[in-house]
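Just scan this pair:

***
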Amino acid sequence: MATSTVENYVKRLYEQQQHCGEELVPLGRLALAMEVVPGTATTMVKALAEAGLVRYEPRQGARLTPAGEKLALHVVRRHRLIELFLVKVLNFDWTDVHEEAEEMEHAISDRLMQRIDEYLGHPVYDPHGDPIPTAAGKVKERRTRRLSKCAAGERVGIARITDQDARFLRYATDRGLVPGARAVVEASDPVGESIRIKVSDGEPLTLGAAAAARILVVTIEANAGDAR
């Protein structure tokens, strides 16, 4: 059975791979995500490589092997199911569940995880809009874009909030920028790095490019169904 440290590393590496695409993840980037010094991350990655969980290229970076990705998806599944359970069943606020899930994901058994999955009706997304891998390690991907890349006149649905920081989630909540919400892009200013949107029946809201980049959306066609 993998230790919590191993699980944390493969999960963080998986998350970083989503940003790097097919490229190797630089160890400096991984160290930053793990909140450790680069030397510590390098030592751990070498150990993971010896265990067959990571492909490591000195001075270039690392990437999960199929075995490492399987373990990472298992941990991600536990984390996201726990987050949804805390919100749906225990009435936690979605701004508070990330840290709770970080602790619980290493203790929950596969049997309990299966029961939670069944109780929740085999959900596809967690409270932040992140896809929940299936027990077989399959992930349902959506064609999303960053809100910051949208043009004026587009109708979009909020699909996913990529920043788990509680302060940003409170910011998003206060402005109605939650998964499932719909919005119209009223103006986009690439030079000024801002975008103005109108969420449902709310007042127009101007976001900076940095904030808008943390919000993933899907295009809504006329008479389309729910954005989720």
